[in-house]
Write a structure and sequence with these properties.
single chain; about 300 residues; mainly alpha; two-stranded antiparallel sheet; 12 helices
Length: about 300
């Protein structure tokens, strides 16, 4: 039995990456983030890289230093529309919004600054789990995955990374305080930038492997610039989440957006499976996913990358 994973087997985890990441976005960040991510992800690499740099700047810049949360100051800030109503109960740190033009999702009615269990779950998934699993996937598939698979994997990575550039979660770092807070900020911004770099590397390598025409690459780059500029104006990089509509609706929106985001990987997976089922020629890898997972000679970390999103 061959212990080299087939092309369609390599595409399986990529199908899950976009779909599961979209559901996690909806569950932990709300339906609006899931919906917006569904649009931005197609041309997201500049948004992710730029948002990561802005996030790091905001995390350590004195301009964004947290303000005091005495009752009198909270009332004054609320009158100016600079904090959300949830801060009045003292449940979370409060900070003034950066000066400048009012953005669409900086509105008091849509921003929230509370610290929740789901917020922590989303952060662990996007800032810790996702970078690790994507690095492992690159190590296992960089030289063997097809150009098409690298492109759709880049899309999946962007779905997971975008949330880090919409809510910096600096309030979480302030709650931790001290060294732990500084480490949190570095992980948050560093993970966003690292995921953006992985996405860029996958897109570039995929385009080179496919020998795409220069005008396709140019059109994509122009779209990335437009998408980044529009998204920064529509949903800027800030400390504060966007209120959801309830867990059920948030998850449903994440699943709905995930269907479209996972569609390219799913189509590729089905095409590869069809080609394998109707081909009389041998492939470089012929093991099904189940056969690959049962191979004792395959390292555990490679098996993990084959099934986990």
């Amino acid at each position: 039995m061959s212990c080299e994973l087939s092309p369609q087997g390599r595409a399986f985890s990529t199908v899950l990456t976009a779909f599961i990441s979209s559901i996690i976005n909806g569950l932990t960040s709300g339906y609006l983030v899931a919906f917006i991510t569904g649009w931005i992800s197609w041309f997201a690499v500049l948004r992710i890289l730029g948002g990561a740099l802005v996030s790091l700047y905001q995390a350590f810049s004195p301009r964004y230093t947290q303000v005091s949360t005495t009752d009198a100051e909270i009332i004054a800030l609320e009158q100016q529309g600079l904090v959300s109503d949830t801060a009045a109960g003292g449940a979370a740190p409060v900070e003034p919004a950066p000066s400048g033009n009012t953005k669409a999702f900086s509105a008091k009615s849509r921003r929230k600054i509370d610290i929740t269990v789901l917020g922590w779950v989303g952060w662990v998934y996007t800032a810790i789990y996702s970078p690790i699993i994507q690095i492992l996937w690159l190590a296992a598939n960089w030289s063997v995955a097809s150009g098409q698979l690298k492109l759709v994997r880049g899309l999946g990575v962007s779905v997971a990374a975008l949330g880090l550039t919409m809510d910096t979660k600096r309030r979480y770092a302030e709650r931790l305080g001290g060294v732990a807070g500084a480490i949190f900020k570095l992980i948050n911004g560093g993970s966003a930038f690292g995921m953006g770099a992985i996405c860029l590397a996958l897109l570039v390598k995929g385009a080179l492997d496919l020998n795409l025409k220069w005008y396709f690459i140019l059109i994509y780059c122009v779209c990335c610039v437009i998408w980044a500029a529009g998204s920064f104006n529509f949903i800027p990089v800030e400390d504060g989440g966007i209120k959801g509509a309830g867990i059920i609706l948030d998850v449903l929106m994440g699943a709905f957006a995930g269907i479209f985001l996972a569609a390219p990987a799913f189509i590729l997976w089905r095409d590869l499976k069809f080609a394998a089922d109707h081909s009389n020629t041998s492939q470089s890898g012929s093991a099904t996913l189940n056969e690959y997972l049962s191979c004792e000679s395959v390292a555990v970390w490679k098996k993990i990358t084959a099934v986990l999103p």
